Amino acid sequence: KQEVTQIPAALSVPEGENLVLNCSFTDSAIYNLQWFRQDPGKGLTSLLLIQSSQREQTSGRLNASLDKSSGRSTLYIAASQPGDSATYLCAGLDNAGGTSYGKLTFGQGTILTVHP
Amino acid sequence: EAGVAQSPRYKIIEKRQSVAFWCNPISGHATLYWYQQILGQGPKLLIQFQNNGVVDDSQLPKDRFSAERLKGVDSTLKIQPAKLEDSAVYLCASSSRLAGGQQETQYFGPGTRLLVL
After folding, report:
1. How many beta carbons lie within 10 A of that of residue B92, not counting itself?
2. pLDDT 10s digits, B5-16
């Protein structure tokens, strides 16, 4: 059974800092690893998706890496801004592709606060 | 492109009452998911549909929860009777498959926030 853990549970940083959010998973046979953002009272927005054959993905100030052998993924946010304040969730997708349908297992999230 | 729609946005009920949530996925998305997100936790998959068939309902408490997607589009999730521990946000998501067979990312609705008193 896949278990996903995120560290830290909460993080508060001043504007402009670079920061790293950590995610670990127990089953390395994941199909892909995704990072989501959740704003209060809203649904989840996909930020980055890393296929199992890839090692990283970049979008603007965000960079996510995946190391299947160690069961870890990191989300790097460069030059953080107050608008980045949200909860960040990572999720592993297992057993997808072909005719099977994968299941996402989420971590508990990291609550990020970027103060001016 | 319209996103995933859910209603109601908020619901307050007393324990042992019944409640139903509605979801309209993104047009053309064959796969629909219902998640339960308890405060301070990540979403947990309750049920997954492919068109109008159930793919995975292993984590659905079937003694009180039920879900259907009769025409392979809209879906409803029902709780009967509700318990205090059902207080959570219920998220609906949908996705499609890419041409190569890879599963596309899931698109989430805003959720329904349920409080059971």
Report:
1. 27
2. 999 999 999 999
